[in-house]
Design a protein that fits this description.
Pfam families: SbcC_Walker_B. Keywords: Coiled coil. This is TIGR02680 family protein. The structure is a single chain. This protein is α+β, with helices and mostly antiparallel strands and about 1400 residues long. Among the domains are: about 5-175 and about 1285-1390, P-loop containing nucleotide triphosphate hydrolases (Rossmann fold); about 200-215 and about 1095-1285, no CATH class; about 410-490 and about 770-820, Helix Hairpins; about 575-710, no CATH class. About 60% of the residues lie in helices and about 10% in strands. The strands form seven sheets. Strands 1, 2, 4, 5, 6, 7 and 27 form a seven-stranded antiparallel β-sheet that branches. A hairpin with a 2-residue loop joins strand 14 (about 695-700) and strand 15 (about 700-705). Helix 9 (about 215-320) packs antiparallel against helix 26 (about 1045-1065), helix 11 (about 410-485) runs antiparallel to helix 12 (about 495-510) and helix 11 packs antiparallel against helix 19 (about 770-820).
Length: about 1400
């Protein structure tokens, strides 16, 4: 514990919320604010700590609950002001070299206005002391402006941004660097309200996780912007692709739609043409029929006139005969005879009627006798019915109602029966309810017996499961010990013998939620050794690859030399021009040494030529080619023959031209003769090109030497010798590399086998699934036992309740039965009901029988009266019929006598008249037939004329139909639809003005048909030119099969749906494609798409969008490589890896810290940071990569990590398409979600185990609270311990220790002292007055909402007692002065009164908002 470090001494709030000017004093670094809810204690913590270390005004960091509502602006303008200027500050001090302590004061100025968003801030870090060296308030209680405070503290203490302020605070107090942000995040996590409430190890993990630093927000923002740019390109590509796909899909549906309509309209045209041809044929037939009918009419008209004359003659003869006197008498007698015959027929009918009347009288008499017998039988039945009514009434209990005898009127009987039936229903209802509760009691009794049996069975099964668990654990433990024997000894050992106990300890928690699995613990134990084995294998692999590459290079070089492709001298870097295909060759290929030349001299000549650059210079077959190349300025060197000199010897004396076809020998000789050959003792002539026999050369101002041991390039022999030497050297190197590679391969195989050993050992681990299954079985059976016990108790309760219900229902049944004079036995009740039914039926039958007798007696009376009336009518009718019959016989005799007296002459006239009348009838019949035939002929003429007129009208209508159908085809004859329909043909569809109207076409066709023309040819001839060919092309392409309305509707529906999808799809794109369509009068829909180029037909838009897809695809690939690979993921992956490494270092420090502080029971708490269980495969792979250190990760690991992060980002964005890229990256790159903190419990004499919630509950109250707070305090201690030794070590606890028993609070406060932590605490009734705490300042808070003021009473715990103002101090300031040794003030000291403050509204400067 450091006694000379900085500690918080004071903190204050000015003009924030209802704090006008409040100062809080720390006692030995401890401050406790206590009070009721709303007293302002949490508000003071909110605006002070860790805000004074952070300076970030984000409401989520200010509000302890991480809400968005508690803004700093609302705190400043809490009292409804239009503007406000306030301060929050905190002072840290440590012992100085002199009497005065060293102090650091942090001040944050805050300014807010109603009409502006956010808060303007200014930041100060100063060594001066508030109230001693400077103040924040002027004498009139107004806060100093930023300019005034800068003047008082100095420009160097002022910082304009929160980032600069944090850097300054860290530099002055902590020295954490990048880890300073992690400290702030941890302090915010520890400040969470009610941290100790509902103690849970999982919540500790959440809190510690929240304290880890996330990825830098600036990096996330930059990456989000870059990904957004990429997304914009991707969106345009996706939009183009979507539009392209939509166009193709819609084109298919649209083409099908057009095809259906084209076929339908082509079929309509074909049908209309066929119908018109039929009408033309019919018109020709009517014309022929008119000619025939006209001739027939004329012939029949003449025949009618002839027959009419014959009929008129016969009519005159008949009239003459009818005027004869004898004929008139005979006719009068005939009339009388016919009248007498009618009278005879009437008399016969009257006789038959009188006979029927007599039979009816006999039938009615017999019926009357039957009715009388029925009445007698009914009267006898009434007595029996009355007796049955009385008997049934007695049985049903109807007569007990006191309403008189049972035989009453029907209405009374029904009422009495209904009342009794109500009694029956009531009793039956009670019986039903009684039966129900009795059945329930029986079921409850059975359930009670069954649940007892179930409980016995469950307890027995649970005991068997527990025994089975013990057996399985013993078996797996034995198997694990055998495994340890195999894998902890010898060269294949993967872990130490002591690790076997750790693995066996896993079995104790196997099957528990969140418990580590055996493979996980094995991996954790063996991970260092396995990682080292993998690294060793990787190193050997890299060496093997390097050796393999070297061997391949040597072999390639050997093959190059052996193939004589490497004979040339090294290339000159200044000669970069390509020599491929150039005529000529370099000098060394064109010459060889003379046979007589000494090898030493030959080596000297070649070395001099090589050093001078002549050996590889190019020689053209024609010097003009060389001059042309020089004129072109190609980068190369050439040789041109020089004028013949006077040198006694030249290169031509020692070099000879090779036999080749590249350069003529004369050219080579001329070149060689241009270079002098000198002896070593000769003095060269200035400017003359020469070489010497001791390897020197001279070329103008350029001179030098190129000694060489032997010639290598000039001459095939020399080149072959050089190849042999080089090949021998390479063979030796190949042999050495092959041996090294074989040895390295054996070592690599052993290393690979070593790596595989870990996987084999892991796979050889005993299967612990039986243990987990047995644990689950025990838990399952324990749950069943508890359920069975509960079920048995509930069954017993239900049985008791059911028994009580049965007794209660029986009592109610007896009471109701007595009240209604009813039996209680179900059979007796059924008997009453049956008797009641008999009573109703008998009474109803009695009433009906009496009514029937009355009706029958009335009917008998009516029948008797009718029989008497009919008998009298029959007698009178019989007498009248007899009289008329006698009169008719007398008249008939008289008429027969008169007929016998007619003479023969009259009879002859009558016969002649009859013959004339017969002839007249026949003539009239013939005349009628002729007239009918003539009328039919005239009708034929009319019909023919009507047929002609009708045929012309029908033809006109048919032609109108043809023209209408052709007009309906017009939209489909445009180029676009023709292409989609595949209709060939060069004929353009005629304009409407070129078409004849139907009347004109009908006139032309009628004239042609009348003249005998061909109907079909005439009909097609009236169509405009090119139309028949176009119609044939449409018929050939789409057909003329009929299309039903259903098919058209289906095609239209599908096209409409496709159009809707097409429109909706294009509407979702960012390019603003607009789909519009229009329908022609016939209903054909034409589709256009509008874009930035205007309104385009569908095919044109399809071509445009296809080109755009190709263009965006190429752009996307370039953007994706640039953003993903070069800028984003590398930096992100590096920072995530660094964050994880830092977190692991922190956890190791925390673990060591907590284990070094055992509890009083000896129990120690450890901390591990392990991979989370819920991770996907990709996240698991990322977490595994992050376990490596920087060296182990390497470039390959970084590349793999970058690829995995890319896939995670794409995967998350696909699942959350509405999320912004900042949200996506923040969710995907939150490495803290990939790991979890795990508390470990180590009890002396027991194996260490994970501290689960169940094990935590087993601990004592003090141990439980210590086990939770120890890791939290250790986290703060670890971070502070990694900072500067003099740094303050302050943590904040809101509603500290809420829910923890007072007995355990001293130990927890003692932990803060043990960890040397300063504390800023709040609590409802929190008192820190424990022996474990040497000193603590308390403030009892009170908030007056009416006056907008906060008051605080200062009390001090000095390690022995609580001291307040009542102990002889005048107030808080006096007690604080006693504690601090000074009387501080926030007002400007007198020495600075010369600087007059200005009003807030008049302050000219504007503070930078955060």
């Amino acid at each position: 514990m450091s006694h000379d470090r900085f500690k918080p001494t004071r903190a204050g709030v000015i003009n924030v919320w209802d704090y006008l000017d409040e100062e809080f004093t720390f006692a030995d670094g401890r401050l406790v604010l206590r009070g009721h809810n709303g007293s302002g204690k949490t508000k003071a913590l909110e605006v002070l700590f860790p805000f004074v270390l952070d300076g970030h005004t984000d409401p989520r960091r200010l509000d302890p609950f991480s809400g968005q509502n508690r803004t700093m602006k609302s705190n400043l303008l809490y009292r409804g002001q239009d503007a406000e200027y306030g301060f929050v500050w905190m002072e840290f001090a440590r012992p100085g070299e002199g009497p005065r302590p060293e102090t650091v004061t942090l001040v944050i100025g805050l300014r807010a206005q109603q009409h502006r968003d956010g808060v303007a801030t200014s930041f100060f870090v100063t060594d001066k002391r508030l109230g001693v060296d400077f103040g924040l308030l002027a004498t009139d209680n107004r806060p100093l402006t930023e300019r005034q405070l800068k003047a008082a503290l100095g420009e160097g203490s002022h910082h304009t941004s929160a980032a600069d302020y944090r850097a300054a605070v860290d530099a002055r107090l902590f020295g954490l660097g990048d880890r300073y942000v992690q400290l702030l995040d941890l302090l915010l996590a520890l400040r969470r309200p009610l941290l100790a409430k509902d103690l849970d190890p999982e919540k500790v993990s959440d809190t510690l996780t929240a304290g880890l630093s996330p990825i830098d927000e600036e990096l996330i923002d930059q990456a989000a912007r870059d990904f957004a740019n990429l997304s914009a390109v991707q969106r345009r590509f996706d939009d183009a692709t979507t539009a392209h796909t939509a166009v193709e899909a819609f084109t298919t549906s649209y083409t099908a739609y057009l095809t259906a309509h084209a076929r339908h309209r082509s079929a309509g045209i074909a049908t209309a043409l066929n119908r018109a041809e039929e009408h033309v044929t019919t018109l020709a037939g009517h014309t022929g029929a008119l000619t025939t009918a006209t001739a027939e009419t004329e012939h029949l008209t003449a025949e009618v006139r002839r027959v009419e004359e014959e009929v008129n003659g016969l009519e005159a003869v008949r009239k003459g005969l009818e005027e004869s006197e004898a004929l008139r008498d005979a006719r009068a007698l005939e009339i009388e005879l016919r009248h007498n015959d009618r009278i005879g027929r009437d008399l016969t009918e009257e006789a038959r009627r009188l006979q029927r009347q007599s039979e009816e009288i006999d039938h009615l008499t017999a019926e009357a006798r039957g009715v009388g017998l029925h009445i007698d039988r009914q009267r006898a039945a009434i007595a029996d019915l009355v007796a049955e009514v009385r008997e049934s009434a007695d049985r049903a209990g109807v007569t007990v109602d006191g309403e008189g005898p049972a035989d009453t009127d029907l209405t009374t009987a029904r009422a009495r029966a209904a009342a009794r039936e109500a009694d029956v229903h009531e009793i039956r209802a009670h019986l039903t309810e009684l039966h129900r509760v009795e059945a329930e009691r029986a079921r409850a009794d059975a359930d009670a017996a069954r649940t007892g049996t179930d409980l016995d069975d469950a307890e027995a099964a649970c005991a068997r499961a527990e025994a089975g668990l013990a057996d399985v654990r013993a078996q797996v433990t034995d198997a694990l010990r055998a495994w340890a024997h195999r894998w902890t000894d010898g060269p294949d050992g993967v872990c130490a013998p002591a690790d076997a106990d750790t693995l066996i300890g896993v079995l104790d928690t196997c099957g528990e939620p969140g418990a580590p699995t055996l493979p996980e613990v094995f991996t954790e134990i063996t991970d260092p050794a396995r990682t080292e084995a993998i690294r060793h294998e990787h190193r050997l692999t890299a060496d093997h690859e390097a050796l393999t590459a070297d061997l391949a290079d040597v072999r390639a070089e050997h093959a190059e030399i052996a193939a004589e492709r490497d004979d040339a001298p090294p290339a000159d870097r200044a000669r970069t021009a390509s020599r491929e295909g150039r005529p000529g060759a370099p000098l060394w290929r064109l010459v060889r040494f003379a046979d007589h030349l000494d090898p030493a001299h030959a080596a000297a000549v070649e070395g001099a030529l090589d050093a001078a650059g002549l050996l590889t210079a190019w020689v053209h077959p024609d010097p003009d080619l060389t001059r042309a190349a020089l004129a072109d300025g190609t980068s190369d060197a050439y040789l041109l023959p020089a004028p013949a000199g006077h040198a006694p010897r030249t290169l031509a004396d020692v070099l000879l031209a090779e036999e080749q076809h590249h350069v003529p020998t004369r050219t080579i000789d001329a070149l060689l003769a241009s270079v002098a050959l000198l002896d070593p003792a000769d003095v060269p002539t200035t400017g003359t090109p020469h070489v010497t026999l001791d390897s020197r050369f001279g070329h103008g101002v350029l001179v030098g030497a190129g000694p060489k041991a032997a010639p290598e390039f000039i001459g095939a022999t020399n080149r072959a010798a050089r190849r042999r030497e080089r090949l021998a050297a390479l063979d030796a190197r190949v042999e050495a590399l092959t041996a090294d590679l074989a040895d390295l391969g054996r070592r690599l195989d052993r290393a690979a086998d070593r790596v595989k050993v870990f996987a084999i050992a892991r796979g050889d681990l005993p299967e612990v699934t039986p243990v987990a299954r047995a644990v689950k079985t025990v838990e399952h059976h324990a749950t069943l036992v508890a359920g069975a016990r509960t079920a048995r108790a509930q069954a017993r309760l239900r049985l008791d309740s059911a028994t009580a219900d049965v007794d209660a229902h029986r009592t109610r049944l007896r009471a109701v039965a007595a009240e209604r004079s009813m039996p209680t036995a179900p059979a007796d009740v059924d008997a009453v009901a049956a008797a009641l039914d008999v009573f109703r039926a008998a009474h109803r039958t009695l009433h009906e029988t009496r009514a029937d007798i009355a009706r029958t007696e009335h009917d008998l009376t009516e029948r008797t009266s009718t029989i008497g009336r009919l008998t009298e009518e029959h007698r009178s009718g019989t007498r009248a019929h007899e009289e008329r019959t006698a009169e008719h016989a007398e008249t008939l005799l008289r008429l027969q006598t008169r007929r016998d007296g007619i003479d023969a002459s009259a009879q002859e006239i009558i016969d002649r008249l009859r013959r004339t009348e017969d002839d007249l009838v026949h003539g009239r019949s013939v005349l009628t037939d002729l007239r009918e035939r003539a009328a039919a002929a005239r009708d034929g003429v009319v019909r023919a004329e009507a047929g002609i007129e009708s045929g012309r009208s029908s033809l006109l209508l048919a032609l109108e139909s043809v023209l209408d159908h052709c007009a309906g085809l017009t939209p489909l004859t445009r180029p676009g639809p023709r292409v989609l329909l595949g209709v060939d043909g060069d004929h353009a569809w005629p304009a409407p003005t070129l078409w004849p109207d139907a009347q004109e076409a009908a006139d032309r066709i009628t004239a042609a048909v009348t003249a005998g023309g061909d109907p079909t040819g005439t009909l097609r001839a009236v169509l405009p030119p090119g139309v028949p060919a176009t119609l044939d092309a449409f018929a050939e392409s789409v057909g003329t099969a009929p299309v039903t309305d259903t098919a058209l509707k289906t095609a239209a529906t599908r096209m409409s749906e496709a159009l809707r999808v097409f429109t909706d799809t294009l509407a979702t794109t960012v390019d603003g494609y607009r789909v519009d369509h229009e329908a022609d009068p016939g209903g054909i829909i034409t589709v256009h798409v509008g874009d930035e180029t205007g309104r385009n037909p569908l095919p044109a838009f399809a071509r445009t969008i296809a080109e755009r897809v190709e263009e965006q695809d190429a752009l996307l690939r370039r953007e994706e490589r640039g953003v993903l690979e070069d800028e984003l993921l590398s930096a992100i992956a590096q920072q995530i890896h660094e964050r994880v490494r830092t977190a692991r270092d922190l956890v190791r420090s925390m673990d060591a810290d907590t284990r070094s502080r055992p509890m009083t029971s000896g129990t120690r708490i450890g901390i591990r940071w392990t991979r989370a269980d819920h991770l996907t495969d990709r996240r698991r792979a990322v977490a595994d990569l992050l376990r490596r250190d920087s060296v182990g990760l390497g470039q390959g690991g970084l590349t793999e990590l970058r690829g995995l992060l890319r896939e995670l980002i794409r995967e998350y964005h696909a699942a959350h398409p509405r999320a912004t890229y900042k949200q996506v990256l923040a969710a995907v790159l939150d490495y803290r979600e990939w790991y979890r903190f795990e508390l470990r419990k180590s009890v002396p004499g027991q194996d260490e185990a994970r501290l689960t919630k169940a094990k935590h509950e087993e601990m004592s109250g003090g141990e439980k609270s210590a086990a939770i707070h120890l890791p939290l305090f250790a986290a703060a201690n670890a971070l502070y311990s990694s900072a500067r030794a003099t740094c303050p070590r302050l943590i904040a606890l809101d509603e500290a220790f809420a829910g923890i028993d007072d007995r355990y609070k001293p130990e927890l406060m003692g932990l803060t002292v043990t960890f040397d932590l300063d504390v800023f605490m709040t609590g409802h009734d929190l008192w820190v007055h424990y022996d474990s705490v040497p000193m603590a300042a308390h403030y009892d808070m009170h908030h007056d909402k009416a006056s907008h003021t906060v008051s605080a009473m200062f009390m001090l715990w000095d390690g022995a007692q609580v001291v307040d103002a009542d102990a002889g101090f005048s107030g808080n300031d006096a007690l604080s002065s006693h504690l601090l040794g000074i009387t501080p003030s926030r007002f400007v000291p007198l020495a600075t009164e010369g600087t007059l403050p200005v009003a807030v509204d008049d302050a000219p400067e504007a503070l930078d908002p955060v």
